TrEMBL record:
Membrane-crossing residue ranges in chain numbering: 38-60, 75-92, 104-130, 142-161, 173-193, 219-241, 253-275, 287-309, 333-356, 371-392
Native species: Talaromyces marneffei (strain ATCC 18224 / CBS 334.59 / QM 7333) (Penicillium marneffei)
Keywords: Membrane, Transmembrane, Transmembrane helix
Cellular component terms per the entry's GO annotation: plasma membrane
PANTHER family given in the database record: SODIUM_BILE ACID COTRANSPORTER 7, SOLUTE CARRIER FAMILY 10 MEMBER 7
Domain of life: Eukaryota
Gene3D superfamilies assigned: 1.20.1530.20
Protein's name in the database: Sodium bile acid symporter family protein
């Protein structure tokens, strides 16, 4: 009949046992599926949050636009970015910051890519479009905006957040961000005007404003208050109460707040674009080209940065090749992959308005579209690159572990 176990009677027949437990297995399986689904959604919460931010920007553009209800030029561009750098200051040991200040190879690779290689690639594409598009289906204002985008420095907040999420060296990313945004105000304006095509339709963008003093004041004020000051405060707190700071960071997952700040930056960026109707008036060809070219450019630049940071083994066969093409540590290579292709709205938009202060708002808004879309799309693409680079780093760690185990086994034998 059955076996008595305490107060339960378990049937001896296996078929009866399966039927008896079938009602337990199904709900348990359903709970597992539900749990995996929720974890998947939580893993993509940045993308979901950015989608919601774009929707809110479209429905209520006046709330978070530049000069809107919440004064996002102060509350978000200072507050959200400042919080990111405060958390970075709390999280990064001072020895790592000091080490990377003298990492010349890292500086050369990131800054040359950002200020020389990216403009060269974009300028070649712009001239190709001018030569093959006699009907001007692609708006010249957008092409001028791409040249401006290529010349601005790497972004401030997302590089640090994405590098940290991928398991990279966020101290390296932080140092490169600060250097680039210090150089940017001096390099970008003149570089943009120099690179503008010498054709009649670009004459408006070649004659920029001669008085850039106000722009320099605004940019350095923003860089000081939203980046340098929070970073210094965070470092001082960490130096004074290091154990307590590390405990709070780990206990309350403080680093997640940095990711939330990225959603706020997307919200204010798209609110300004929708408020001026500049997106809606572009031709379909211009919109499709801009969206697809941004993704293709970012992925191409990521591959280039990864190849430069971790050159192929074939280039390191000779003694000379080993010295010249020495691979960077995986953590630094990840930082390069995020810092090299990225661009910032924090400098790009103020610079655009300062350079072309006499230009009408509609034309300035159209010129800003590449800056707005590229800096937003780069966050989407970088979010998925986090998983790719994290997987790559884990593969390297597994290979190193297997090699070390093989060496130990060989010694024992």
């Amino acid at each position: 009949m059955g076996t008595e176990t305490g107060a339960q009677i378990v049937p001896d027949n296996p078929e009866i046992q399966d039927n008896a437990y079938e009602g337990v297995k199904i709900p348990h399986r359903a709970l597992l599926i539900l749990k995996k689904t929720l974890l998947l959604i939580l893993g993509q919460w940045l993308i979901i949050g950015m989608g919601i931010a774009c929707l809110l920007a479209y429905l209520f553009p006046n709330v978070a636009k530049h000069g809107g209800i919440i004064k996002s030029q102060g509350s978000i561009l200072y507050g959200a970015v400042g919080l990111v750098f405060l958390i970075s200051g709390l999280s990064i040991p001072r020895s790592k910051l000091y080490t990377h200040m003298f990492n010349w190879r890292l500086h050369a690779l990131v800054q040359v890519t950002s200020f020389l290689f990216v403009p060269a690639v974009v300028l070649a594409v712009v001239h190709l479009i001018i030569a093959t598009d006699p009907g001007r289906l692609i708006d010249p204002a957008v092409l001028a905006g791409f040249i401006l985008t290529s010349a601005i420095p790497t972004t401030i907040a997302s590089n640090v957040v994405m590098t940290r999420s991928a398991g990279g060296d966020d101290a390296a990313a932080l140092v490169e961000v600060l250097i680039a945004n210090f150089l940017g105000p001096f390099l970008t304006a003149g570089w943009t005007v120099t690179l503008m095509p010498k054709t009649a339709e670009f004459e408006l963008w070649r004659s920029g404003s001669s008085d850039m003093s106000q722009m320099y004041r605004d940019v350095f004020k923003q860089l000081g208050l939203s980046a340098l000051l929070p970073l210094v405060i965070g470092q001082l707190i960490r130096w004074t109460w290091e154990k307590q700071t590390v405990y709070i960071l780990q206990k309350f997952y403080v680093a997640k707040f940095s990711t939330g700040c990225m959603i706020l930056l997307v919200w204010t960026t798209f609110s300004s674009a929708f408020a001026t109707d500049s997106l809606e008036t572009l031709t379909t060809q211009t919109v499709i080209f801009t969206v697809l070219f941004n993704v293709a450019l970012y992925l191409f630049l990521t591959v280039v940065c990864f190849t430069l940071a971790r050159p192929p083994q074939a280039l390191r066969k000779t003694t000379w090749g080993k010295r010249v093409f020495r691979p960077m540590p995986p953590e630094e290579a990840i930082a390069v992959c995020f810092c090299g292709p990225a661009k910032t709205t924090a400098l790009g938009i103020p610079l655009l308005y300062a350079m072309y202060d006499s230009m009408d708002l509609y034309t300035k808004s159209k010129t800003s579209i590449p800056v707005l879309l590229y800096t937003t799309e780069q966050i989407f693409v970088a979010h998925f690159m986090v998983y790719v680079l994290r997987w790559w780093k884990r593969q390297l760690e597994r290979e190193e572990k297997r090699d070390s185990e093989s060496v130990v086994e060989g010694i024992v034998e």
